[in-house]
UniProtKB/TrEMBL annotation:
Record-annotated Transposase IS204/IS1001/IS1096/IS1165 helix-turn-helix domain positions: 114-160
Organism: Pediococcus damnosus
Residue stretches making up the Transposase IS204/IS1001/IS1096/IS1165 zinc-finger domain: 63-106
InterPro entries linked to this entry: Transpos_ISL3, Transposase_DDE, Transposase_HTH, Transposase_Znf
UniProt cross-references to Pfam families, sorted A to Z: DDE_Tnp_ISL3, HTH_Tnp_ISL3, Zn_ribbon_ISL3
Domain of life: Bacteria
Keywords: Plasmid
Name the UniProt record assigns to this protein: Mobile element protein
Domain called Transposase IS204/IS1001/IS1096/IS1165 DDE: residue spans: 176-424
């Protein structure tokens, strides 16, 4: 009879230990000194249901942390209310009874410690990790607070305390990309990344030249900046004015997309001016220039000249080349602009720097929209030719800016630029 009672008692203890281990595993708690005593449900002042895990924390403390004597005695417990990570979107807490100790020698008291939470804090490491993970998914602070069962201000405090913006990167890469994006309150901020690894280097609050110069000169030595071999930029004239000062051995590269975009804008401006000169708004030429504008932006190699297709707007079957020829034959001035655009497009796609340089040198102004574009290209001649000589582009930094725009859209904008930059550092990790 006595043996059966002992066996039943041991069985109950095993079940209790198994239940304790299961609950601790759910919350990823690995402290061996924690013992779960029960689970209950309560309601707070806002009528929100709280799942409460009752536990005790106790272990044998040999020396007093104040005086070092081995004269400690147990002196009651202290109740701590800790916030746990959520399991199903609700609010989970742990009511933890911590063992208190008193030293007979110095009469000072101390309590049991756990790695579950920092000193004098109620948020456990588990819920902080959940907040950071959800913030990386571009959720708003209110949505994160709702999922974790905390307040939006607590979410921001957790992010501010655990995410720190780096002073600088350890090594400055050899190839950089410069660009800007719209941040808070209609400000334009500066962004820089590695052209090869696509790693973000720095994000500054504004794009002023003096602030960009101060950042790189204050944080990187002349020897480090001299190792940069290329900097890829857009058509922004301000960047080109100080790149050689910061990086004396770097070649300035203008992004190929912006070159084609500028030439295509000149082609569209000339096309719209040509449309305004047509009196008959129902003519075939008018409809070709009006509705089939995409054909004029195609590379000549990709234009179909053998198979007739139905062209909407014209409502006729004809080849793409035939439609282009009808418009060009009717307007010689538009033809010259179109031919210049095709020359630029071919040189950029084939990365032929000699062909591009020859086109700029032999261009004859005809008082059209392309004249302004060619003058802009001539002013930035070496940087434009480098776009054909080097394989780098602004594609990596445009991808980073796209993520920033998605973050702003998901979070409905930001009023505090510091909070915005903390979220930017999370999505770029």
């Amino acid at each position: 009879m006595c043996y059966d009672l002992i066996a039943k008692t041991n069985r109950k203890e095993e079940i209790q230990m198994s239940l304790t281990n299961s609950i601790l595993c759910l919350f990823e708690i690995t402290d061996p000194n924690l013992i779960v005593t029960g689970i209950s449900k309560e309601r707070c002042s806002t009528n929100q249901r709280i799942h409460v895990v009752h536990a005790t924390l106790s272990y044998q403390l040999l020396k007093c942390p104040h005086c070092g004597h081995k004269s400690l005695i147990k002196n009651g417990t202290h109740m701590s209310h800790l916030r746990l990570g959520t399991l199903s979107g609700g609010r989970y807490e742990m009511h933890l009874k911590r063992q208190r100790y008193q030293c007979k020698d110095c009469s000072k008291t101390c309590g049991a410690k756990t790695k579950l939470v920092n000193r004098n804090e109620t948020f456990t490491h588990n819920i902080k990790h959940q907040v950071i993970v959800l913030a990386r998914d571009m959720l708003t602070s209110k949505e994160i607070a709702k999922l974790c069962g905390i307040s939006p201000s607590s979410v921001q405090r957790i992010l501010n305390a655990n995410i720190h913006l780096a002073y600088r990167v350890k090594h400055l890469p050899e190839n950089l990309c410069f660009d800007e994006f719209r941040s808070c309150n209609h400000w334009m901020s500066f962004n820089c990344c590695d052209a090869v690894s696509h790693r973000r280097i720095v994000t500054l609050k504004d794009r002023l030249s003096k602030d960009i110069i101060d950042y790189f000169e204050a944080r990187f030595s002349v020897q480090e900046r001299a190792q940069v071999q290329s900097v890829t930029i857009d058509m922004n004239a301000e960047y080109g004015s100080f790149i050689h000062r910061l990086f004396p051995n770097a070649a300035t590269i203008i992004d190929r997309f912006h070159i084609i975009q500028l030439a295509g804008r000149a082609l569209d401006n000339e096309r719209t001016q040509t449309i305004r000169t047509i009196q008959d708004k129902h003519s075939r030429i008018y409809h070709i220039l009006k509705s089939q504008w995409r054909l004029f932006h195609l590379d000549e190699i990709k234009v179909n000249d053998s198979k007739a297709v139905y062209l909407r707007g014209i409502n006729e079957y004809m080849t793409q080349q035939n439609a282009i020829d009808l418009a060009l034959d009717a307007f010689p001035r538009f033809r010259s602009v179109y031919q210049t655009y095709q020359g630029i497009l071919s040189a950029i796609h084939q990365k032929d720097a000699n062909a591009f340089q020859s086109l700029l040198a032999n261009y004859q102004p005809t008082s059209n929209q392309m004249d302004i574009t060619i003058n802009t290209f001539i002013k930035n001649g070496s940087a434009l030719l480098n776009s054909c000589r080097y394989p780098f582009s602004n594609g990596p930094i445009e991808g980073l800016n796209r993520k920033i725009k998605a973050l702003k859209r998901n979070c409905f904008g930001f009023r505090n630029i510091d909070n915005f930059f903390i979220r930017i550092s999370l999505i770029h990790e």
